[in-house]
Write a structure and sequence with these properties.
By secondary structure, this protein is of the alpha+beta class. The chain contains 3 helices and 10 strands. The chain has one domain: Domain of unknown function DUF1214, C-terminal domain (Jelly Rolls), CATH 2.60.120.600. It starts with a helix and ends with a strand.
């Protein structure tokens, strides 16, 4: 009976370590692989049937529902432009010009990879058809001066995803150098 208990606990520990390692490797497949452009990271294998299994699992875990890379480019930032981790306790200004694309949007996610629940039901900032300029705030509370805003309160470590739908060929040709909006930390609580 003692040997059975010992073997059972070894199997349980092995399974738990395997699940933890798999979770770590899935997250790493998203955050540490791919193409870096400032604070933004992308991967041309998102949505690709031939993508590595860990990348597919990471995309599924994060709920990206990724379209093929021939249709959409996804850039995600986990840090600001100075390399500091994004936090729900800080206020960030996202500014710049969006790359040439048919449509773009920014969506904010909490540390659990889900949308951050908020009282005002604001979950993304999207393209102004007249301008390709990007200018909005990520912060726990609405900015005093108004303007576009993504509420971050309750998100913990956050990330922001930029989706470029049907970008022009020049974007695909220069994923590491295409000018993307900056994320500047203005203050923290």
């Amino acid at each position: 009976m003692k040997i059975l208990a010992y073997c059972t606990s070894l199997v349980l520990v092995g399974v738990m370590l395997g699940v933890a390692a798999f979770g770590f490797l899935m997250d790493r497949a998203i955050t540490a692989t791919g193409i870096q452009n400032g604070p933004w990271v992308t991967n041309t294998a998102y949505g690709d049937r031939e993508a590595p299994a860990l990348l597919k699992a990471g995309v599924a875990k994060r709920g990206l529902f990724a379209l093929k890379s021939t249709e959409t480019v996804y850039y995600t930032a986990y840090t600001d432009s100075d390399g500091q981790a994004l936090s729900d306790a800080c206020t960030y200004r996202v500014t710049g010009r969006a790359p040439a694309t048919r449509w773009w949007s920014f969506t904010l996610y909490g540390g659990d990879n889900f949308l951050i629940d908020n009282e005002v039901d604001i979950y993304s900032v999207f393209m102004d058809p007249v301008s390709m300029n990007v200018d909005f705030t990520i912060s726990p509370d609405a900015p005093a001066g108004g303007g576009d805003w993504l509420p971050s309160k309750g998100g913990g470590e956050i990330s922001v995803t930029l989706r470029l739908y049907n970008p022009e060929p020049a974007v695909y040709e220069s994923l590491t150098t295409t000018p993307l909006p900056s994320i500047v930390r203005e203050s923290c609580i």
